[in-house]
Specification:
131 residues; alpha+beta; four-stranded mixed β-sheet; 4 strands; globular
Length: 131
């Protein structure tokens, strides 16, 4: 029984840390936009993710980390890929996302219906260690 209580506590700690990461991402993105360091405002959120990208740490029905570019216009694929590369080229950040249960990085704009998705595990540098 105590193990069950410990598992519940761990789940809430992970959930709190995931929300904190999203909140900090949004604050940093806003500050970068206001300081004219970023050409568009970005907004992070939690999404369903891609079921084919699941791994051992994936959260059920909440494995996607979505970044929405609030540009007011549809972004082309290269613009979305450029945003994704900022995250994917930072292995420490990718590993943090994986350890908190995310398996998918999604980039979307706020005007169109297109987006790009990436399997975080493929950009983590930890091949064969989790799956």
């Amino acid at each position: 029984m105590w193990n069950f209580i410990s598992n519940i506590q761990d789940w809430f700690n992970d959930f709190s840390e995931r929300r904190r990461l999203v909140r900090n991402f949004n604050l940093s993105a806003r500050d970068a936009f206001v300081a004219k360091l970023a050409p568009t405002l970005l907004e992070g959120s939690i999404s369903m993710g891609e079921s084919a990208y699941k791994h051992a740490f994936s959260k059920f029905l909440a494995g996607g980390f979505r970044i929405k570019a609030l540009s007011g216009r549809p972004l082309n694929r290269q613009e979305m890929v450029s945003i994704a590369q900022v995250v994917l080229n930072n292995q420490e950040l990718v590993r943090k996302l994986i350890s908190l249960g995310w398996d998918t990085l999604e980039i979307h704009d706020n005007a169109g219906y297109n987006g790009v998705k990436y399997k975080l595990y493929d950009h983590s540098g930890i091949k064969g260690m989790i799956g």
